[in-house]
Write a structure and sequence with these properties.
single chain; 14 strands; 292 residues; Purple Acid Phosphatase, chain A, domain 2; eight-stranded mixed sheet; alpha/beta; six-stranded mixed sheet
């Protein structure tokens, strides 16, 4: 019997495409520690993409998540959770699996995690932390809402203020769309209002003083917090105050270099590259704060 020869079709392109594994970029920057806070995943104002850029470009021995990674308050009003917000969580977990020690300190927007203090593999959830810098200084790490009298004593007002803040944030995309048309950079209406309104400026100043006064009870040389979305490095007497900012307005983090020096890193949404600010702390007074 004769069986006609069967010819196999020539595949001009593979049906499945497999990307080669990513090699570690030579541009990855290694630092001792990093601090991020107030990412507010679950809100439209969260600049998760900018944070992902930071997490990809830096490797650190210890990552401190200083509260409000997830905005439970907003999720209670309505679910908003795009893929990039999943990517942030997955990236942090991946770093933990690869050896980064992750310390999670809950804030007021994710205070539910305060019920789960403890160690989970290479991740710990704790109320506050003490970090030893490379130069020997001891540093207290807290979210900061503990010293916010509105959050602690008038919670309904804190919720109302959060709704107003979310409204200002919702205007940012439209404003920046117009600004881009005119070749202008990123600008935050909510950040501008906070810096210009007298009461807000006064609140930030009092907040910083209260945080430093609180830190003195722990006999530390420095304190890091978040909460007020205002990155800063200031020195109050013998205590240096650090605020790692947020990933809603300033898109900023703190990093510790090998010599113990701390820098502010900014990843503004419209910027082509990160901006690292290395600056001496602003001196606020020459003596220790007086106890109240």
């Amino acid at each position: 019997m004769f069986f006609p020869a069967r010819t196999m079709p020539i595949l001009t392109s593979p049906r499945f495409s497999f990307e080669p594994p990513r090699l570690e970029s030579e541009s990855v920057r290694r630092v001792r520690a990093a601090w991020i806070s107030d990412v507010h995943l679950g809100t439209r104002g969260s600049n998760a993409g900018a944070l992902l850029d930071f997490l990809r470009e830096y490797e650190f021995k210890t990552l401190y998540v200083v509260g409000d990674l997830i905005d439970v308050w907003q999720l209670r009003r309505g679910i908003y959770w795009p893929q990039q917000h999943n990517d942030v969580i997955q990236k942090i977990l991946r770093k933990s699996r690869k050896g980064t020690r992750v310390v999670y300190i809950p804030g007021n927007h994710d205070d539910l995690l305060g019920k789960f203090y403890g160690a989970y593999g290479n991740i710990t959830v704790q109320k506050h932390a003490i970090h030893r810098l490379a130069d020997g200084r001891r540093m207290l790490i807290v979210h900061g809402h503990e010293l916010d009298t509105v959050v602690q004593n008038v919670k309904w007002l804190a919720f109302a203020g959060d709704i107003g803040y979310q409204f200002l944030l919702s205007l940012n995309p439209a404003i920046n769309l117009v600004r881009r048309r005119f070749g202008l950079g990123y600008w935050s209406l909510s950040a501008f209002a906070k810096k210009r309104v007298k009461d807000a400026v006064s609140f930030i100043g009092r907040f910083e003083e209260e945080i430093v006064r609180y830190a003195q009870k722990f006999a530390v040389d420095a304190v890091v917090c978040g909460h007020i979305h205002s990155a800063a490095i200031r020195k109050f007497g013998h205590v240096t105050y650090y605020n790692c900012g947020d990933w809603v307005e300033s898109c900023s983090a703190l990093i510790e270099q090998d010599d113990g020096k701390i820098d502010v890193v900014r990843y503004l949404p419209s910027a082509k590259r990160a901006q690292t600010q290395s600056q001496p702390p602003e001196l606020i007074g020459s003596g220790a704060l007086k106890e109240k």
